[in-house]
From TrEMBL:
Pfam families: HTH_1, LysR_substrate. Belongs to the LysR transcriptional regulatory family. Keywords: DNA-binding, Transcription, Transcription regulation. It comes from Rhizobium metallidurans. This is DNA-binding transcriptional LysR family regulator.
Length: 300
């Protein structure tokens, strides 16, 4: 069959249904009635001469053919997005400098594929110069507000008024101790909040004491501005503190640190891209964020 714009629209509706988990949940996303959604799905099935999903009292479930159509549709949308961004780059002849700020030690996080985004950006906007700085989150926000950088990517414990925040992914943080620490050889069932309170804790200056809130009014015995400094203190065997799991993994694999009570102390740090709303509408910033969201399979 020859595809046209109407078929692509039907495929997008179908993808929204799949990602929402059914016809009814997709209503708020598509902002159309349930009967209209059902009609569009039936039309697509007629066009393809395939049954894409089972729906009824048993709930919504893709058929094997439906799963294949969804997978191919996602690839098609990616190709369309690539074509769109490439044509925009050619049309606008993007030049100048993009100022990007990131927080430290995200390179080991598989959920943060910035190098792939940078590669695509560089390929599709070859005349643009990239200036990249690494700062703690609060400094990144300050530089967004002062116009020194255009995009900041981090987990922001304190959000400032003004910038727009685009959700990206969650980073898992766990509580760690070094092999020379007294708690290293203790079983988790011997460790609780009160036991931990008796030991020296590390806090991050940009986080205030939010990650130590569970320990109530305990004063940290060390403060750091980045993950490497915190890791060094934990590795010393004298301090306890939080690290991102992806960053800590290298030391865990070496037997140099271990998690303590992940059931009690683990939490998620939400990563976002921050930029000024006016900057978001400009070519370079808009282009980079679109590539970033595409790479993370986020909705445009």
């Amino acid at each position: 069959m020859a595809f046209d714009a109407a078929d692509i629209r039907l495929l997008k509706i179908f993808a929204s249904i799949v990602e929402a988990g059914g016809l009814a949940p997709a209503q708020s996303e598509l902002n159309i009635s349930l009967s209209t959604i059902s009609s569009h799905l039936a039309t697509l099935e007629g066009r393809l001469k395939l049954t894409l999903a089972q729906r009824g009292r048993g709930g919504f479930r893709l058929t094997p053919e439906g799963q294949s159509v969804y997978d191919e549709a996602r690839r098609l949308f990616g190709s369309i997005d690539h074509f769109d961004t490439r044509m925009r780059a050619l049309k606008e002849k993007m030049t100048g400098t993009l100022h990007l700020g990131i927080t430290d030690n995200t390179i080991s996080d598989p959920l943060c594929p910035l190098e792939k985004v940078i590669a695509k950006f560089s390929d599709q906007a070859p005349e643009v110069t990239l200036e990249v700085v690494t700062r703690p989150p609060h400094e990144l926000l300050r530089e967004i507000l002062t116009g020194q950088i255009q995009i900041a990517i981090a987990s922001f414990p304190r959000t400032a008024l003004g910038p727009e925040y685009i959700p990206l992914y969650d980073e898992i943080q766990s509580f760690y101790c070094g092999k020379d620490h007294p708690l290293f050889s203790k079983a988790d069932d011997e460790i609780d909040v009160n036991v931990v309170r008796e030991h020296k804790l590390v806090s991050r200056t940009y986080w205030g004491q939010r990650d130590l809130k569970i320990f109530e009014s305990v004063e940290p015995r060390a403060r750091v501005s980045d993950m490497e400094a915190e890791a060094r203190l934990i590795l010393s065997g004298r301090f306890l503190g939080y690290l991102p799991d992806h960053y800590a993994k290298q030391f865990v694999d070496q037997g140099r640190i271990r998690q303590i009570r992940p059931d009690l102390f683990r939490y998620k740090a939400a990563f976002q891209a921050a930029c000024e709303p006016t900057e978001r509408k400009r070519g370079l910033v808009s282009f980079f964020i679109k590539l970033l969201k595409n790479e993370l399979n986020l909705k445009a």
